[in-house]
């Protein structure tokens, strides 16, 4: 479903190198107060980080497919991509009652709103051919389904790839366009075309993804910074802002000679305020396996998974650490609280 997913996957694959020789990270030995949620097709895995407990919940409502957003924390609950007997849908999951997901709407996919307890629903145009799959409308709703911005058709039925406070972002071959759903007008454009991460009116974008653009719409400031020297590229879709908007965590591929199926993947931290990038020691693991990053609710801890391991990192620490649990990845969605 994600139209440019193949392009970024190939771009990152070209940057993969030989198996990592980094020292394995130590085990996490302190409480974080966190839970981590991971999705595969038809199941939700819950990790109680402090108790090192893993619970797998079969959920037929969780669907296969390739939307940009599979699982996102919204306040104390989760928004999840899924399916009904009719087709794609969006569900709300209460982590305390994961066996009872609530249907939010039968939408083609969703995009997180800048409002913590809202999402944007993408409504497919049934008359659009399968080769196009244009949207009939986008709609911002609360998690009980109340519309906060009523149905409006996006430009040419295009798919939004992210949201900022000033509107929705749409991807072209070269840049990102900002569209205001209230005035129904294009109001700005940014270097792109990959929307690494968004928060409020901040966004991080990239093109070849060997450098990133930091854009603050409230201040009008735009900066371009390089990623760490031993990193080939960051994931153009996979970043996540910390809850306070300062840090962006994003999966990254190391640049070495050769390409293997066990290419090392890790995490880069972008400090938006200081305009710096740092590779997180201890996060470089083997194989791609849908790497995902997520911050817990207070932003103190970052969690990273790309297969059967779960890693925890606190900004300022010397290295990430391993959560002592065994996972059955790969997972397609990751959230934390």
How would you describe this structure to a colleague?
With 337 residues, the protein is mostly beta strands. 3% of the residues lie in helices and 46% in strands. The chain is built from one helix and 30 strands. The chain has one helix at residues 5-13, and strands at residues 35-40, 43-48, 53-58, 71-74, 77-83, 88-93, 102-105, 109-112, 118-124, 135-142, 147-152, 160-164, 167-171, 175-180, 185-191, 194-199, 202-206, 211-216, 221-226, 231-234, 240-241, 247-254, 264-271, 276-279, 285-286, 292-295, 302-305, 310-313, 321-322, 333-336. Strands 20, 21, 22, 23, 24 and 25 form a six-stranded antiparallel β-sheet that branches. Strands 3-2-1-30 form a four-stranded antiparallel β-sheet, with no helix packed on it. The chain has a four-stranded antiparallel β-sheet with strand order 4-5-6-7, with no helix packed on it. It is globular. Mean pLDDT is 90; it is low at 1-21.
In short:
By secondary structure, the protein is mainly beta. The chain contains 1 helix and 30 strands. 3% of the residues lie in helices and 46% in strands.
Chart the SSEs and their pairings:
Blueprint: H1 5-13, E1 35-40, E2 43-48, E3 53-58, E4 71-74, E5 77-83, E6 88-93, E7 102-105, E8 109-112, E9 118-124, E10 135-142, E11 147-152, E12 160-164, E13 167-171, E14 175-180, E15 185-191, E16 194-199, E17 202-206, E18 211-216, E19 221-226, E20 231-234, E21 240-241, E22 247-254, E23 264-271, E24 276-279, E25 285-286, E26 292-295, E27 302-305, E28 310-313, E29 321-322, E30 333-336
Antiparallel strand pairs: 1-2, 1-30, 2-3, 4-5, 5-6, 6-7, 8-9, 9-10, 10-11, 12-13, 13-14, 14-15, 16-17, 17-18, 18-19, 20-22, 21-22, 22-23, 23-24, 23-25, 26-27, 27-28, 28-29
């Amino acid at each position: 479903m994600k139209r440019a997913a193949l392009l970024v996957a190939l771009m990152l694959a070209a940057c993969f190198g030989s198996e990592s020789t980094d020292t394995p990270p130590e085990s996490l030995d302190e409480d974080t107060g966190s839970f981590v949620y991971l999705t595969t097709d038809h199941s939700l895995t819950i990790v109680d980080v402090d108790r090192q407990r893993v619970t797998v919940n079969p959920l037929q409502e969780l669907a296969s497919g390739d939307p940009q957003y599979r699982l996102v924390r919204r306040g104390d609950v989760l928004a999840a991509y899924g399916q009904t007997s009719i087709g794609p849908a969006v569900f709300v999951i209460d982590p305390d009652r994961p066996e009872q997901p609530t249907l939010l709407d039968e939408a083609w996919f969703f995009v997180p709103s800048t409002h913590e307890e809202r999402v944007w629903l993408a409504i497919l145009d049934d008359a659009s051919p399968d080769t196009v799959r244009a949207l009939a409308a986008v709609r911002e709703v609360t998690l009980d389904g109340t519309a906060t911005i009523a149905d409006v058709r996006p430009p040419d039925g295009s798919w939004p790839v992210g949201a900022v406070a000033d509107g929705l972002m749409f991807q072209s071959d070269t840049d990102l366009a900002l569209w205001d759903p209230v005035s129904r007008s294009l109001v700005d454009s940014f270097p792109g075309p990959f929307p690494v991460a968004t928060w409020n009116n901040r966004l991080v974008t990239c093109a070849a993804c060997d450098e990133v653009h930091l854009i603050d719409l409230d201040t009008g400031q735009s900066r371009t910074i390089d990623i760490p020297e031993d990193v080939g590229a960051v994931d153009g879709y996979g970043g996540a802002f910390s809850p306070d908007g300062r840090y962006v965590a994003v999966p990254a591929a190391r640049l070495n000679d050769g390409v293997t199926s066990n290419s090392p993947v890790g995490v880069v931290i972008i400090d938006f305020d200081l305009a710096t990038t740092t590779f997180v020691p201890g996060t470089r693991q083997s194989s791609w396996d849908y790497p995902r990053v997520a911050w817990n609710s207070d932003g103190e801890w970052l969690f990273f998974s790309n297969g059967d391991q779960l890693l925890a990192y606190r900004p300022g620490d010397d290295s990430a650490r391993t959560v002592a649990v065994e996972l059955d990845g790969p997972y397609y969605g990751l959230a934390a609280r």
